[in-house]
Amino acid sequence: MASLSSVSLSASSSETSIFPSTNRKLAVLPTAVRTFPTIKKTRTRMIYVAHVQPPDVNRPHSSIRSTSFNVEGTRNTTSLDEEVKVDASGMEVSIKLPLPLFETQSSSTDAETYDSASLSIAVIGATGLLARTKIFPALFALYYSGHLPEKFVIYGYSRKNLTEEDLRAIIAPTLSCRIDLQENCEEKMDAFLKRIFYLNGGYDNREGMSNLNTLMEEAEGKFGANRIFYLSVPEEALIDVASSLAEKAQTQRGWNRVIIEKPFGLGSFSSHQLTTSLLSNFEEKQLYRIDHLLGRNTIENLAVLRFSNLVFMPLWNRSYIHNIQITFSEELGVQTSARYPNGYGILGDVVHSHIFQTVSLLAMEPPVTLDGEDIRYEKVKVLKSIRKLESSDVILGHYEADSGSNFRDKNNPMPTYFGAVLYVDNARWDGVPFLIKAGRGLKKNRVEIRIQFRRVPGNLYHKDGEHMQNLDTNELILRDVPDEAILVRINNKIPGLGMNLEASELNLLYKDKYNVEITDSYEQLLHDVIDGDNHLFMRSDEVEAAWNILSPVLSELDNNNVTLERYNFGSKGPDKAANLWAKHGVQWLAD
Length: 591
Description:
By secondary structure, this protein is α/β, with parallel strands linked by helices. It has helices at about 110-115, 130-145, 165-170, 185-195, 205-220, 235-250, 270-280, 295-305, 345-365, 370-385, 510-515, 520-530, 540-560, 575-585; strands at about 10, 30-35, 50, 65-70, 85-90, 90-95, 120-125, 150-160, 195-200, 225-230, 255-260, 285-290, 320-330, 395-400, 405-410, 410-415, 415-425, 435-440, 445-455, 460-465, 465, 475-480, 485-495, 500-510, 565-570. Helix 10 runs parallel beside helix 13 (about 540-560). Mean pLDDT is about 80; it is low at about 1-100, about 105-115 and about 405-410.
């Protein structure tokens, strides 16, 4: 441990300093260099909270007071044995100096004492809806289930004038313990909230990030430190926040990882600008472009299903698969105009990332390893093999509802429905249509992948030269919503006399098989970021390839050359969609 025998403080009348647990600025000492008397060491770990009382002209003295408390995960009670007092120019300052949050009180060497680096997580935009309802609850779920390192701190960062207690009070009602555990729930919540601190970053991101770096360094001490920055900020603020972070807040004693929320640009041009800016400040391996829909267990299970089951591997090609249907259907309408002001709606919000990533995971070749970069390499090959969409193979729609919340203006509604047929032009998938239906304001909530196999050549089950009955095609159905399940549709004989057949399902219903709570998608993806697993996060070339697929459709939208098909709220979607499926020889069986 570094010696605390003397501490120097230098400040000018225009300078301020900030303690790591508060956004309130400390009283300024007169311009001078002050050397404090010797301070007695204490064997504690602590975080300090500084309460500032500014100088009062009616009193000869003012003070800075600190409050200490226990830090969960340690056996020590935090306290300091002595105060340092400075009397200068009529001002008395009383300070209780803290030790770094992760300082270990031991006679061991530094290498022995710090066997693992600390983790600092900064949520930029901490008071926003996403942070309150998704990010902080997911972090607590990881903490509750033991998937955060012992030495971690979370920093909330925004422009609002709040205290730590204010932020904790905002977060606390959103936290919940796992239904399948429920052990020490309140105790765990209290311990988690004590690890959360707040900084008002102000309107100068460079200064704000510099202050954030100071807070992190004070808590981390002098040993190994890793950092995650979750940028939950509007798209227009992203470049400035990211560049300020890169310059002022990265640690030099561990890794830095940056999580970026959708949208990843608003089309090919703006996406290219964003990517260029990000790569001028960070390495590709530092960037984690997050889409919560890709954190679902069904998506995570695709590679497992394909590459660990011999029964499917030889069938996964054009010789046996007739078509693949991907459905993303939501009952409710969602306001996306604020995030996609150019009017791309569901194309930017769902299709560009979630749908195309699902297609790439379904269609990719076996990767060399399960390393994230090997998987991403195979995914981008698929995306570059997909034909650019032509308007004749796309149906865009907009639901008719009283709210009109998704309109750009009276004459240009934003797409809430996307129906399309994709083709992957490679040897494995040549001629196999991938049918996409993504929509909001539809009849039911349904998220599933349906792989429809080719018909059995010939039909042995006939009588007097006539077919006794048609055989249904075999299907593999991967259902996420409602009720996650894996279903296999087969033809089966009905028990009894005679040869009567019917289509039956072999089913694995997760809620019946597994007595565990399915993790939230944000929890899964944050866990992947901590582990450095990036296979479910889009790389820059994947982002570009996905926009290139959509570029003909986006161009038509920009030039107002596309007529959106109206459909009633709560219906199956535009009627013309059925014609599109039939054009490619497919009946949408989910309907």
